[in-house]
Specification:
The complex is a heterodimer.
Chain A lengths: L2 H5 L4 E4 L5 H10 L9 E5 L16 E5 L14 E4 L15 E4 L15 E4 L12 E7 L13 E6 L15 E4 L10 E4 L3 H13 L11 E5 L15
Parallel strand pairs in A: 1-2, 2-3, 3-4, 4-5, 5-6, 6-7, 7-8, 8-9
Antiparallel strand pairs in A: 9-11, 10-11
Chain B lengths: L1 E8 L2 H5 L1 H11 L7 E7 L8 E6 L7 H12 L5 E4 L2 E6 L3 H11 L4 E6 L2 E7 L2 H7 L9 E7 L14 E4 L2 E9 L2 H10 L9 H14 L4 H11 L2 E8 L3 E6 L8 E4 L3 E5 L2 H4 L9 E3 L7 E4 L4
Antiparallel strand pairs in B: 1-8, 1-14, 2-7, 2-8, 3-5, 3-6, 4-5, 9-10, 10-11, 11-12, 12-16, 13-14, 13-15
Classes of the chains: A alpha/beta, B alpha+beta.
């Protein structure tokens, strides 16, 4: 039983084999300005289309049945978007709030520049996952590719599998947690002690991602050595 | 930006409808490359002792019949030209290399698009949708094929600058990306005797592979050597007599997805090209890792 069926609320079904993508996105965008309208949506036959359900700004639930192309759920606010398939480049780019979940794999630059909200990838994420992240939380059940969390500024990246080369290169104040092997750390990224408060926040993130079975104590924590940028400890509260 | 597609048939049914599926995939990649389009199809292997040439003429009134008679006089037999738009495929009673060398020498106005046992390369400027109908792609049957839609960045939009590029007998290359050391490498390869027809960077990659293979490298070794010697961004799809191979550079900026079912293996720049194939929704799909060569070959009997 899917979440949609469990609640039993009316679901607006849009078949992209019939309805133009712009029409779907416009209808979803229109809900940002008004309260009336369907809250639950189901999108059929995305067939790798780009920019599916991007720019949402309302408390909606959108289920996408199939693989999507580039920039799915980009700039999302408030909405919960779930892809029952794989996602192309730039999934949940610049996520502001809400959640984006992908059952399969995500291509490169997933969650890039995200400012808030939660991105969950149940498969693997490719290169540059969380590049320049600015407050987004990202949980990946599988592994992430090279250059992930490049210049990451804020937020948390949780990887239950392995991380590719140059993890966290030129990182600022984001926190990285990896359970498996790290092929290599980028410039100014170092391993740090996983203290109780970190295990607690990790447990919370895993629970939010629906991965409560994963033990936070199996992870290692990585972050900035603060040698590369002009970090001043007096300003720590500002981060 | 450019678009790449590749399709490898694992069932007879798919072989029979190869062109139709290739056309649908290529059309989906039109937005990535509206300047020109091209394909390499592997089909109808030439009988033992003979070989197949695909030739291009810019002259719409080209007398292919006369050329066939010349080829017959030179190599024997009575070759016939199978003409599609600006291209003609001719079976010649000779080794592919000899037939190719003769055409280059005797008819410098013609371009040898491909030479070998099974390969046929067709390419033209203009939108991929026009290419698909002009060359009647849907009518092609074959064991495997690859295609390209080009958005030109490094050199002019011409037929010769379109992809695929022949890299030797029954070998070809399509490329998405740009190479930054192609000028120096072209000069180096010219000194090794590799000929170039354009200022195109992708042709240099094709020439590089041709040179490595000529020097005795296996396809896998030649591809791995690319990682050392080619500077720039690339996703390559390489066609061979028996299959195809995929390689992405170590940075892997240029996209690629691969999918496989019991009936086919497909590679494309984006999923929406693969989504046109039968059973795509249930296919095993993944993104090729950077710096790793992936190859599929028909089992040799």
């Amino acid at each position: 039983m899917t979440a949609t069926e469990a609640v039993g609320a009316a679901v607006e079904v849009v078949d992209l084999a019939v309805t133009p993508l712009r029409e779907l996105n416009q209808r979803l965008h229109d809900l940002a300005d008004q309260t009336a309208g369907p809250e639950r949506w189901r999108v059929l036959n995305p067939n790798g289309a780009h920019a599916v359900a991007c720019g949402l700004d309302a408390k909606l639930e959108v289920e996408i049945e199939g693989h999507v192309g580039y920039y799915c759920a980009g700039m999302n606010k408030l909405a919960a978007v779930r892809v029952h398939g794989n996602a192309g480049t730039g999934l949940a780019e610049n996520l502001m709030s809400g959640t984006v979940t992908v059952d399969g794999n995500a291509s490169q630059s997933a969650g890039a520049t995200g400012r808030g909200g939660l991105l969950v990838v149940h498969g693997d994420a490719a290169a540059r996952c969380g590049i320049s992240m600015k407050g987004i939380d990202i949980v990946v059940r599988g592994s992430v590719g090279h250059m992930s969390a490049f210049m990451a500024q804020r937020g948390r990246l949780v990887v239950c599998g392995d991380a590719g080369d140059a993890l966290g290169d030129s990182i600022y104040e984001a926190r990285l947690y990896v359970r498996g092997d790290v092929a290599g750390l980028g410039a100014d990224c170092v391993e740090k002690e996983l203290r109780d408060e970190h295990a607690a926040e990790l447990r919370e993130l895993l629970l939010q991602a629906g991965l409560g079975d994963v033990d936070p104590r199996e992870f290692r924590r990585y972050g900035s050595a603060r040698q590369l940028y002009t970090f001043k400890v007096d300003n720590a509260a500002a981060y | 930006m450019c678009g790449i597609v590749g399709l490898f048939a694992k069932s007879l049914e798919l072989e029979e409808s190869l062109g139709e599926h290739l056309a649908a995939m290529l059309t989906q990649m039109s937005g990535r490359g509206p300047d020109s389009a091209g394909i390499a199809v592997y089909r109808n292997p030439a009988p033992f002792g003979s070989s197949k040439l695909t030739l291009f003429s810019p002259d719409p009134l080209e007398d292919w019949e006369a050329l066939c008679q010349e080829l017959g006089a030179r190599f024997g037999g009575s070759p016939e030209a199978s003409v599609r738009s600006s291209h003609a495929v001719i079976l010649v009673d000779a080794e592919a290399a000899d037939a190719e060398a003769w055409v280059r020498e005797a008819h410098p106005d013609l371009r040898v698009m491909s030479a070998g046992q099974a390969i046929e390369i067709y390419k033209e400027t203009g939108r991929p949708e026009e290419f698909v109908s002009r060359f009647d792609l849907a009518s092609f049957q074959g064991s495997h094929a690859l295609g390209h839609t080009r958005m030109a960045t490094e050199s002019r939009v011409t037929t010769e600058g379109s992809h695929p590029f022949s890299t030797g007998l029954d070998l070809c290359l399509v490329h998405n990306g740009s190479l930054s050391n192609h000028n120096r490498l072209r000069e180096r390869l010219r000194r090794e005797g590799i000929a170039f027809q354009t200022e195109n960077d992708s042709e240099v990659a094709a020439g590089y592979l041709a040179w490595r293979l000529r020097e005795g490298a296996s396809l896998e070794e030649a591809l791995e050597a690319c990682l050392e010697d080619l500077d720039g961004f690339y996703t390559f799809l390489v066609g061979t007599l028996d299959g195809f191979a995929v390689l992405r550079d170590g940075i892997a900026c240029k996209p690629a997805v691969i999918a496989e079912t019991d009936d086919w293996v497909a590679m494309a720049s984006e999923w929406r090209a693969i989504a046109t194939l039968p059973g795509a929704a249930e296919a095993r799909e993944w993104e090729p890792a950077p710096g790793v060569a992936y190859a599929w070959e028909r089992a040799k009997v």
